[in-house]
Amino acid sequence: MKFLIIGGTRFVGRHLAAELLARGQQVTVLNRGVTPDDLPPEIERLRADRTDSAALASAVAGRCWDGVVDFAAYRGPESEEAARIFGGRTGHFIHISTGQVYLVRDPMPEGTCREEDADGALRDAPPLGSDHAGWVYGVEKRECETALLAARLGRGFPMTILRLPMVQGARDHFQRVHQYVARLQDGGPILVPEAPDRPLRHIYGPDVARIIADLLIKERGVGEVYNLSQDDALPFDRFLALVGEAMGVEPRVVRVPREVLEREGLLPECSPFSGRWMSLIDNGKARRELGVTFTAPEEYVPEMVREIGTLNPATVDGYQQRSREIELAEAH
Questions:
Q1: Strands of 159-164's sheet, edge to edge?
Q2: Model pLDDT for residues 203-230, shown as the tens digit of each residue
Q3: Contact at 8 Å (CB) between 90 and 82?
Q4: Which residues, 6 or more positions from 20, have their beta carbon under 8 angstroms from its beta carbon?
Q5: Confidence of residue 130 (pLDDT cuts 50, 70, 90)
């Protein structure tokens, strides 16, 4: 079978390309070609700016694929154009969405969110600041979903929407777990907001790739929306303890008022998993209908930390503020 991956050559997309290749499938990747990648040479590359519909259409002209996975659509018109371009040219189009579509609903659902909880009116936009970008991201990804669902209803476009929470993995180019590893590595404190953190119900990157590959090859889930997340919600302190155990380090957490951390410009780097835009989503539908399984944090966190290894702090974005974090921790 032949599959096209749009974007995502650094993290989950890279895992998916390797997973499909290992299963004997033909893989093509489309991106701008700006970021160097370590994809195997047998993977075909197509070059186009995903946001330019004419360039995208030109790059895939005359081609058909058994499945297409879109990691790089962030606005409604981009998904609308993708449905037009790939209509009749693929048997399965998978859009990678986000749990943040639940967090922009009014009222925001309480507790763990199921697929139907995304329906409803939107929350008003928060003031410009740390919350605004998260709101915009959730709203625009919801517009992507709306465009694809309309294409499904109107002309039978064979789409599947996968809503993901925070994805963890050693290849994460946002370096979220790396931030914690670098700080534990130097033996200093971890600054986190005083307010209780939302539980972490994330997902392991290789799990996402495995599940997507199964959907593509087995041709399952067409026309549906699924949440994907690990089975259990993990308290933040337990997550940090797992990272510390894998490193042989005892984490030292210092809690500071959120407004202080924000005023000092230390969030999100000092604690990426303490953000306000942390979705908590239920995976029951995917487990029931698809029979998927998820790796537990107790298993994947040690493996992830081993893959990350010893870090050069200079390579970790945001670590440059570390001296200010330590000063603030000492003051508290």
A1: 44-47, 26-31, 2-6, 67-70, 93-98, 159-164, 225-227
A2: 999 999 999 999 999 999 999 999 999 9
A3: no
A4: 3, 27, 213, 216, 217
A5: low
